[in-house]
């Protein structure tokens, strides 16, 4: 499979690359104005972020949102998309969800339940949460006491997870892409 990884400056690019080692990868570091060569790709993965401290609502010197180009790419891209952590926040925000700051950031393995009642244990490392998504746009597949954990778009091949499947746990990246 040919995969484009949009690196939102994740600290976990090496584990993500290892998790995708059996695929043909192109990794593009996100910055405003970057163009994504996605036409020949089978899947686009939007990585976690945080390595440089930029968040969904941050602006760059021109006054536009730092991630404005990526938000528009999410809405326009016809290819399957998988969002991880920051990628989850960007996907849900592109479709109108509010990103809220948690009172205490999460770091470490956490166990929660999926809507099908299965138990999921995944690595979390984030300071933000999404509590609501458009029910017309998204199916919520899992939630925890720290917000929505997994969503799947109802009409487009988009899946997003607030956690880091590249760092181990119940669900792997192949598990998530199979749900697209």
Element order: H for helix, E for strand: EHEEHEHEEEEEEH
Oligomer description = single chain
Structural class designation: alpha/beta
Biggest β-sheet description = 10 strands, mixed
Measured as a percent range, the helix fraction is 10-25%
β content, as a range?
35-45%
Can you tell me the CATH topology?
Rossmann fold
Provide the gyration radius in Å.
Answer: 15 Å
Give the spatial strand order of the biggest sheet.
2-1-3-4-9-8-7-5-6-10
Tally the structural domains: 1
- Low-confidence segments, given as residue ranges, are none
Number of helices: 4
Going by CATH, the homologous superfamily would be Class I glutamine amidotransferase (GATase) domain
Do you know the CATH architecture? 3-Layer(aba) Sandwich
Shape: globular
- End-to-end Cα distance, whole Å, is 14 Å
Average pLDDT, to the nearest integer?
Answer: 93
- CATH top level assignment: Alpha Beta
- What's the β-strand tally? 10
